[in-house]
Amino acid sequence: MRFVPQFTDGQAFPHELGKVVCVGRNYADHAKELDNPIPSEPLLFIKPASSVVDIQQPLSPPFNRGDIHYEVEIALLVGKTICDATPDEASEAITGLGLGLDLTLRDVQTQLKEKGHPWEIAKAFDGACPLSPFLPLSRVPNWNALAFTLEINGEERQHGEGADMIFTIPTLLAEMSRHFTLEAGDVILTGTPSGVGELPRGATLRLTLTGGLEITTSVIE
Ligand code: ZN
Questions:
Q1: Fewer CB under 10 Å: which end of the chain, C or N?
Q2: Mean pLDDT in runs of 10 for the chain (221 residues)?
Q3: In angstroms, rounded to a whole number, what is the distance separating the alpha carbons of residues 153 and 202?
């Protein structure tokens, strides 16, 4: 059965999950740590609905396919269809705010990049996109004031701030909507700050986001 996005107040979203539209290199410090240039326009890719799992369940990505990296990211739930939107229209189409992990088969991705091939098999595999429940948005928040963290086994590994994004959330969404119609139930991942690394087996993860979202989960042994 397809994943249905949930709100933190227990309400189910009235649409199944659609696609997950992601951006690579939206924080300068992360682009630098992977030796990538800072992009002049957003580098977009898509994870399919089949890659999404509930982050609150133990995570079991394919450890037999090489290094798996965690990337914590702000996740946005799209509430209505937008196409070629302005940044303001795009911002108002967001109905929920949460966190996601953009799990990446890093060895596989490095090999694909070297050959100039698409990244799909490194980014779109089953379980590649654990998502949290979403804080319901009654009004558009101050995107720049958002902060989020990822702790692994009690140690902070990633800390991100909306204010440090290269492409702000409204600009990013407007740009995404020029390439792909965004529909109710689609999710946007907004890029990861520095601190990415290998997801350890058996780890306990804690994720937090401004607004009171706090998730604790585990990785299988
Ligand atoms: Zn990412």
A1: N
A2: 87 94 91 81 95 97 96 97 97 96 96 93 97 91 94 98 95 97 98 96 97 95 92
A3: 9
